[in-house]
Amino acid sequence: MIPISFEFYPPKTDDQRTQLDRTAKKLKAHAPEYVSCTFGAGGSTLDHTPETIDRLHGHHGLDAAPHVSCVGGSRAEIAALLQRYKAMGCRRLVALRGDLPSGMGHPGEFRYATDLVDFVRREHDGHFHIEVGCYPETHPQSEHALADLKHFKAKVDAGADGAITQYFYNADAYFHFVDSVRKLGVTIPIVPGIMPISNFSQLRRFSEACGAEIPRWIAKRMQAHGDDVEAVREFGADIVSALCQRLVDGGAPSLHFYTLNLARPTEAVLSRLR
Ligand code: FAD
Predict the structure, then answer these.
(1) In the structure, what pLDDT confidence band is assigned to residue 200 with cuts at 50, 70 and 90?
(2) In which pathway does it act (predicted)?
């Protein structure tokens, strides 16, 4: 079986904490290489991510990687956060720029994820394995696709060890992205980010915000299933597992699942993989 990793978000209520515990326990049975926990830009969840990492690592015994997003943060705040993760025994980070909620806050002292990667390398050289984000369908704010590739290459040159993609449902976008960055001399693993489908209207909202395309044929089939939750889940698991199989057959080094703290949609995909 290909290596896999799971992404969670930090729970804020007791119910959400119980749900994360349940999900982490179920997904641990699939022997992930590591799990990660997202970070809310703008400071809203400054403590939630470290607390969740502590829980995933200390209570569940998982290799847990915090996401660190730099927008809105000061050098001193990020330095303190990195020290905290080091003291907790973390060896892997997902380093991102993040997005400030619209109209909120000062952009902070780091402009791009490249600046954060450079900072982590200079402050903690060799301690952290650094993952970064990348966008087979192009980051929505980039001037154009080639500029985005060039900025990604600069982020890798600053010291990234691996990259995880934004989710996508078009395998060709991934293969083309990998070919393009290899031609630029990027050699690090490019791991597809996989978004299982369980709630189509939520997925549509996420996709509009992050610039991921939902192919028309998928949207049409999902609309036809309407409120039939079981049919949406079945169809979603079929198409996402077919996507994963194509990616694995085409050479993807591992798969990173955006779980949204739910075990069932990810397990439905995993159970269909060869
Ligand atoms: P960057 O790499 O800094 O790129 C951002 C934009 O700036 C791109 O358009 C790029 O082309 C452009 N750019 C880069 N350098 C330059 C330059 N020198 N000059 C001009 N333009 C430049 N968000 C969160 O808030 N919390 C999370 O936990 C989180 N986890 C994520 C995990 C993954 C795997 C991915 C793919 C995304 C995640 N995000 C998260 C979303 C991410 O923060 C947003 O997509 C954000 O808009 C960009 O972050 P980045 O690190 O890719 O930015």
Answers:
(1) very high
(2) Amino-acid biosynthesis; L-methionine biosynthesis via de novo pathway; One-carbon metabolism; tetrahydrofolate interconversion
In tens, the pLDDT along 95-108 reads 999 987 666 666 78
Give the CATH number for residue 163: 3.20.20.220
CA torsion angle 228 229 230 236 (round to 10):
110
Task: Give per-residue burial for 181-196: e unless 16+ CB within 10 Å, then b.
Answer: beeeebebebbbbbbb
- Reported confidence tier of residue 40, pLDDT bands at 50, 70, 90: confident
61 C-alpha to ligand 1 centroid (Å): 29
Q: Cα separation of 198 and 268, whole Å?
A: 10
- Residue 168 sits in which domain range? 4-272
d(CA 45, CA 47): 5
In angstroms, the Cα distances linking 58 to 52, 109, 178, 268 are 10, 32, 36, 27
Strand-pairing partners, residue 260, are: none
Give the closest residue (by CA) to ligand 1 atom 44. Answer: 98
Ligand 1, CB cutoff 6 Å, lining residues: 38-39, 41, 67, 69, 94, 96-99, 112-114, 133, 139, 141-142, 147-148, 151, 155, 164, 166, 193
How far is the C-alpha of 107 from the C-alpha of 100, rounded, in Å?
8
Amino acid type, 70: C
Query: Does 7 participate in catalysis according to the annotation?
Result: yes
Tokens of 139: 């980051």
